[in-house]
Amino acid sequence: MPTRHLDIGCGAKPRNPYRRDELFGVDIAPAAGQSDIRRANLAIEPIPFPDGHFDSVSAYDFLEHVPRVLPRADGSGTRFPFIELMNEVWRVLRPDGLLYASTPMYPHPAAFQDPTHVNILTRESHRYFTRPDHLARMYGWVGDFALVRLVPTRGGEFEYEPTEPPGWRERQRRARRERRGEHSHVVWEFRAHK
Asked: Strand 93-104 vs strand 78-79: parallel, antiparallel, or unpaired?
């Protein structure tokens, strides 16, 4: 059976960090004629694929664009689009499926400089979705992720490759960069438990 990967918020070219056999994307405005990219506004719509369809999902510089809180359309209260999106990611992953997400992190200016960044994440935000804490349960989180890896980076698509963990020299370089405050992004790598 072929393996499948989904890149959310992919733009015109989905990425495939785990080198799966089949690659799909979801974007708010996919280019015309791209059958492997489906259209959806993931702040208000579900991921348009069935349950357990993917071996892995990625989100490159996307999570910071998903609002944390929005009013309900009928005015009856609020909803939590970011929590709902994380539930959707967990839903479309197979058991032991992997999430790879790279996002700007507080307090680096990269987290704030783009006026469309509405969801500022920190190094510890993963605790809302991962074992043992699952802090987002009070907001409707139903999934179950385990943290595989949390890697501060300087941003950029190729600084961290999930299929090739860094050697000791690279880990030392990253530690020096972190002490100097050079890391603008954090990479989450989660495993779905079902």
From this structure: unpaired
pTM: 0.91
Note the pLDDT tens digit of each residue in 89-127: 999 999 999 999 999 999 999 999 999 999 999 999 999
φ and ψ of 168, to 5 deg: -65, -35
Q: State how far the alpha carbon of 80 is from the alpha carbons of 72, 83, 91, 145, 190, in Å.
A: 9, 5, 16, 18, 21
**Residue for token digits 């300087």?**
154
163 falls in which pLDDT band (50, 70, 90)?
low
Per-residue buried b or exposed e for 123-159, using 16+ beta carbons within 10 Å of the residue's own CB:
eebbebbbeeebebeebebebebeeeeebbbebeeeb
Q: What is the CATH number of domain 4-192?
A: 3.40.50.150
